[in-house]
Design goal:
This protein has one domain. About 20% of the residues lie in helices and about 30% in strands. It has an eight-stranded antiparallel β-barrel. A hairpin with a 2-residue loop joins strand 6 and strand 7. The longest helix has 20 residues.
């Protein structure tokens, strides 16, 4: 199962990188150096956690400028804002915000037919990867630019009936995912709260990034 998960993840990364390389970019524009290690780090962390990046976060209203500003705030806990290029608010054209996770309940497997509140285990994980216009291009040092990413652990929250609330933390702040189960999907709002800026100066940004959508049983443990 782990080998299959790894193959799926690698295929997704290759697809997104290839699409981005063909995306909109002005000739001669500066490509911010982020290091090729990002793709490798995502692969290692996702594979060890059993995560597949098969979900996404998109704009609530579809307004590109609002989404771009919110995304800049989200990434500035870990990266300087100038590192972020254009990212589609609708997860299209080879750029977008991908998300995947592995969350388990203290009571065991997910049961959306139960009205009893069940808390999530503290070892849940969520990975958020930002594929922007720079991803897959070559920087001034000759390295292929990897995606921006944040890996969240230390989870809390609950599931009750067809609704769930999750809060996860990394060293830069936290995210909240609150939503509803419908069919084979879990969807809702994605909110972030940074405790710091990338340079340690000033207060971290906070706000709503957009709406998330993930396959329920590849995000939660269902069996």
């Amino acid at each position: 199962m782990r080998k299959q998960t790894a193959k799926i993840l690698v295929a997704l990364l290759v697809t997104l990188t290839g699409l981005t390389a063909c995306g909109k970019k002005e000739e001669g524009a500066t490509v911010i150096s982020r290091g090729a290690a990002a793709t490798s780090a995502i692969n290692v962390w996702a594979q060890s956690s059993g995560i597949v990046l098969n979900g996404n976060v998109t704009a609530t209203s579809g307004e590109q400028s609002i989404f771009q500003d919110a995304l800049s705030g989200f990434i500035e806990g870990k990266y300087q804002p100038e590192a972020l290029g254009y990212v589609s608010s609708t997860y299209a054209g080879g750029t977008g915000v991908a998300v995947g996770g592995r969350v388990e309940l203290q009571s065991g497997v997910l049961n959306t037919n139960s009205g009893i509140q069940s808390n999530v285990r503290s070892d849940g994980k969520v990975l958020v990867a930002v594929y922007d216009e720079y991803t897959g291009r070559v920087d001034a040092s000759g390295e292929q630019v990897g995606p921006l990413f944040r890996a969240f652990t230390s989870s809390s929250g609950y599931v009750q009936g067809n609704r769930a609330y999750l809060r996860l933390q990394d060293e830069y702040g936290s995210i909240e995912m609150e939503g509803t189960f419908s069919g084979s999907s879990f969807y809702g709002t994605f909110v972030y709260d940074n405790t710091r800026r990338w340079d340690g100066n000033g207060q971290g940004a906070a706000g709503k990034l957009g709406n998330f959508h993930v396959p329920t049983c590849q995000f939660f443990r269902c069996q």
